[in-house]
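Q: I'm building a small set of examples for a reading group on sequence design. Run inverse folding on the following structure and report the sequence directly after it, with nothing in between.
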């Protein structure tokens, strides 16, 4: 811990003034409870904000105390270290998940789940977001990494993003300023915090939209290890290949290190079969990278973000 004991108490008290609900300001919170991998040591503090104003105030207090901030959504696509996260985790979840619409434009709080946003669009007979129905994350996290599945990506539907800048001001990003590319956006590089996402969708037939959503859900459930904790796809797709195919052809399905295993259902996933640690996962990732490179001379780049104390 980088703050003295009296400073820790003062910092916690300041957070509690901003957010009076004790269930939304937590100390020494196990991150295993906040990641889809069910892996991770404790965060010094974890805050669940319910408004842009709360986020801005919390960031200001953290900056004044020189406390580092880590932003987290649902906790998919991340691997939290076994030592946990030093500083403050700002988790954008159900308290920042309002969804509304104006015509064919949807506005979603960064903490809204992709599934909820997809279903909201379907009720309005708006098409374009069906591909996202089964992606296990928030809309903010999906924009951050330009998430995609089944020939769809966030950049196809995102028209604008409102974010909090490091100086505490609000900025609106549109068009080319979003800098979308494969599993990347401008927010992957800058230190702005996504608050709200605008999605431009197209009028469609609700029955057809729901049929496509059902198809995506069926494909995901039949091919991916949804029954076990994971962070999602572990590796980015190398040019000209599919990571899962390379791993399977190397004979690595079922390869296990501790409680971490290359999924026997889909080799592109590493699953927690019970009691896995971040070290187990990283050792397994390195073994997979080494053996795939040895066989195919292809370097697999992790898609999962490592966060926390090394």
């Amino acid at each position: 811990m980088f703050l003295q004991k009296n400073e820790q108490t003062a910092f916690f008290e300041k957070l509690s003034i901003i957010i009076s609900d004790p269930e939304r300001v937590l100390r020494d919170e196990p991150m295993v409870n906040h990641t889809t991998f069910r892996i991770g040591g404790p965060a010094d503090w974890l805050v669940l904000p319910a408004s842009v104003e709360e986020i801005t105030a919390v960031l200001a207090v953290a900056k004044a105390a020189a406390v580092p901030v880590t932003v987290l959504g649902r906790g998919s696509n991340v691997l939290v270290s076994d030592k946990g996260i030093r500083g403050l985790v700002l988790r954008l979840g159900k308290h920042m998940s309002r969804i509304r619409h104006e015509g064919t434009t949807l506005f979603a709080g960064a903490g809204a789940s992709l599934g909820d946003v997809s279903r909201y669009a379907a009720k309005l007979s708006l098409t374009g977001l069906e591909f996202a129905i089964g992606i296990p994350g928030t809309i903010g996290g999906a924009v951050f990494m330009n998430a995609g599945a089944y020939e769809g990506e966030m950049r196809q539907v995102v028209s604008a993003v409102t974010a909090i800048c490091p100086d505490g001001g609000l900025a609106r990003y549109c068009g080319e300023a979003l800098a979308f590319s494969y599993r990347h956006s401008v927010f992957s590089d800058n230190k702005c915090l996504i608050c709200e996402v605008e999605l431009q969708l197209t009028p469609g037939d609700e029955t057809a939209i729901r049929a496509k959503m059902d198809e995506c859900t069926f494909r995901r459930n039949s091919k991916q290890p949804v029954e076990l904790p994971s962070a999602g796809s572990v590796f980015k797709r190398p040019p000209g290949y599919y990571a899962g195919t390379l791993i399977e052809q190397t004979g690595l399905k079922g390869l296990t290190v501790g409680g971490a295993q290359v999924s026997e259902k889909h080799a592109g996933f590493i699953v927690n079969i019970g009691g896995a640690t971040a070290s187990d996962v990283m050792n397994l990732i390195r073994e997979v990278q080494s053996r795939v490179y040895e066989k195919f001379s292809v370097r697999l780049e992790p898609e999962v973000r490592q966060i926390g104390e090394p």
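The chain has a mean pLDDT of 95.
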